[in-house]
Amino acid sequence: MLPNFVLVGFMGCGKTTVGRRLASITGHRFVDADELIVKDQKKSISAIFSEKGEEGFREIEERVIADLVGVAGIILSTGGGAILREANRISLKKIGIIIWLDAQPEVLFERAIRSGRRPLLQNENPRQVFDSLLESRRPIYESTADFRFDSTGIDHDEVSRKVLDLAMRQSREP
């Protein structure tokens, strides 16, 4: 049986799109942590941030991720900040192979701002906030992930195939 795959990375890196494609290739069930949070709270991510702040959101996220430990046959797409809490990093390692999807900062910013659904970028200087968050999170992605994949300039189907190949080689190594 194929292992679970956990996709981490900064906003705009393609976790959801690549995750859905990986699920269709592997036959695993696609699970989006943010969708689970929305379902659990019966409100949007933006509404949760607005009502409970980032700390309140992160508490809910931690519980939702912990609930996935021991579930087999999934491709998990996490929110960009899920790796901030040590408890999440521990849970994610128990869930499956952790793949850090990355891209050049300009590409990530363009994708993230285009969606218009990023609560942390709803401010006067989204690029400054983006750059600061990316800089602070990169070392955490690096230390958490089993491997990094740079998707700059590669279409999502090819990213999915290459990520699967890398993950399978990773899972076979002693």
Describe the 3D structure:
This protein has seven helices and five strands. It has helices at residues 15-26, 33-41, 45-66, 86-95, 105-115, 126-144, 156-172, and strands spanning 5-8, 29-32, 74-77, 97-102, 147-150. The chain has one domain (5-167): Rossmann fold (3-Layer(aba) Sandwich), CATH 3.40.50.300. Helix 1 (15-26) crosses helix 7 (156-172), helix 2 (33-41) packs across helix 3 (45-66) and helix 3 (45-66) crosses helix 4. With 174 residues, it is α/β, with parallel strands linked by helices. It has a five-stranded parallel beta sheet, sandwiched between helices. Helices cover 57% and strands 13% of the residues. The two termini are 17 Å apart.
